[in-house]
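Deviation from plan, reported transparently: EPU complex.
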Amino acid sequence: MSIIQQDISLKAFNTFGIDARAAFYAKINQVDDIYGCLDLAKNKPLFVLGGGSNVLFTDHVDGLTLHMATRGISYTADDKFHYVEACAGEHWHDLVIDTLEHKIGGLENLSLIPGQVGAAPIQNIGAYGVELCDVFHSLTALHIPTLELHKFDLNDCRFGYRSSIFKTTEKGQYIILSVKLALAKSHTPVTSYGDIERKLQEMNVVSPNAYDVSRAVIQIRQSKLPNPAQIGNAGSFFKNPVVPFFKYESLKIKYAEMPSFMLESGDVKIPAGWLIEKAGWKGRRVGNCGVHTKQALVLVNYGEATGREILNLAQTIQNDIHDCFGIKLEMEVNVIG
Ligand code: EPU
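Because the crystal trials were delayed, the predicted structure below was used instead.
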């Protein structure tokens, strides 16, 4: 019996809560189901959906939506590393908690990031001074045109800031099936990211372990980022722009208080949230959507917004930031439609 269903609402499957419909939809509980679905849906466009936490649907989705729901986490180790391999459909935060329950550190700074394991490498998720690439070992993916299984190691993925080959040159070519992480046995928690140390002090923790850092990160995220279960959003909507040093210098003369982060390349990363707030957008509502009151980098759906409304707001903000600062903001969220 086919597991493909027709005309299914994706509202519950995207954290923006957009009521897009999938012409054909299949929930994938085991990898073998993929082959049958691809065969039945030959010549139809294919869209692979994970946790739906980094997508904005601006239209209904033609063709087949494959919703990855494969579960399973396994552990191995050698002298230096714990290796944890998780299926694509595992929730990222559940994986973080599972490693901490196994007394393994390394993922604590990435606590409470919404989404699934299979999506994590696509945009090289990151938070509080750690990115997926820092703990990545390899992944297994199905090459859609040939149905061959391919293994990708760290270098193959060409990770960058919220980027990898799966978002650039190989976009749409692979279905990520599982991800293997290497977590150092000699791990010491990374607490240098400003907010974490302040939060740990507030929690009266003197020598934090990975679990303490996870608790701190969870509290910081909960205080700033809206919970998608209560208000639709996809985390940071834009990437933090990277500008040449001369551009940074000219802005710094005008805005002495502007936060910034110097990169090894000599370029400078500027928080898009600061730019958007400075331009007067923080907390502004436009129709059914708006800019979050506590974090200007997050666009929110107040209930009934369409994807197009949110996209219009995003484009208006992009134009305004360009007019105000001469900086082009890039979207971090994948716009589908
Ligand atoms: N800021 C403002 N106004 C705002 C928001 C931020 O002035 O409304 C300033 C803050 O004061 C701070 C700076 O901007 O000086 C950076 O803010 P924050 O630490 O909140 O982080 P971010 O750069 O806005 C990035 C990631 C987040 C991640 C946090 C913490 C991107 C696009 N976003 O946000 O990732 O959780 O750092 O590490 O890189 C995501 O990708 O969905 C995401 C939430």
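The longest strand covers residues 174-184. We consider this an acceptable substitute for the interim report.
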